[in-house]
Amino acid sequence: MLAAREAMVNAAKHAQVGEVSVYAEVEQEEVHVFVRDRGVGFDPDGVPRDRHGLADSVHGRMGRHGGAVQLRSTPGEGTEVHLTMPVDGRTAEQDEPAPTVRAQEETHS
């Protein structure tokens, strides 16, 4: 899920901590991904309306594919983003190209 990657990048940029935790749980009908940090946190209600980063990148991606996002954050205590995606045969992020993965060949002398 590109939304999970975006949540991780946001945590790395803004949490001001050296560690971000990522957990995944697979159930019969849903996949849950949790991205947590114990960083500076923020007040979600205090985010200016013109700041659309999380709304556009994470909420938008999940919503387009039947998923949901729950955000919990408290100043001084960190942030948790909980992503839920149905398991119904669709591939997540169908409208976006998958990242290219390249294998690296090792040579030993």
Q: Rounded to an integer, what's the Rg over CA atoms? A: 16 Å
Look at the helices and sheets and give the structural class.
alpha+beta
How many runs of DSSP E, i.e. beta strands?
4
What is the CATH C-level name? Answer: Alpha Beta
CATH superfamily: Histidine kinase-like ATPase, C-terminal domain
**What about the largest sheet?**
4 strands, antiparallel
Q: Shape from CA axes?
A: globular
Tally of helical runs? 2
As laid out across the biggest beta sheet, the strand order is: 1-2-4-3
Topology as H/E string?
A: HEEHEE
Name the helicity range. Answer: 10-25%
The domain tally reads 1
Task: State the CATH topology.
Answer: Heat Shock Protein 90
- List low-confidence stretches: 103-109
CATH architectural name:
2-Layer Sandwich
Mean model confidence by pLDDT: 79
Strand composition percent: 25-35%
Tell me the distance between the termini: 39 Å
Notable features of this structure?
single chain; 109 residues; alpha+beta; Heat Shock Protein 90; four-stranded antiparallel β-sheet; globular; disordered C terminus
Can you offer a commentary on this structure?
The chain has 109 residues and is of the alpha+beta class. Helix 1 (2-14) runs antiparallel to helix 2. The protein has helices at 2-14, 53-64; strands at 21-26, 30-37, 68-74, 78-86. A 4-stranded antiparallel sheet has the order 1-2-4-3, with helices on one face. The protein has a single domain (2-86), classed as 2-Layer Sandwich (Heat Shock Protein 90). The protein is globular. It has 2 helices and 4 strands. 20% of the residues are buried.
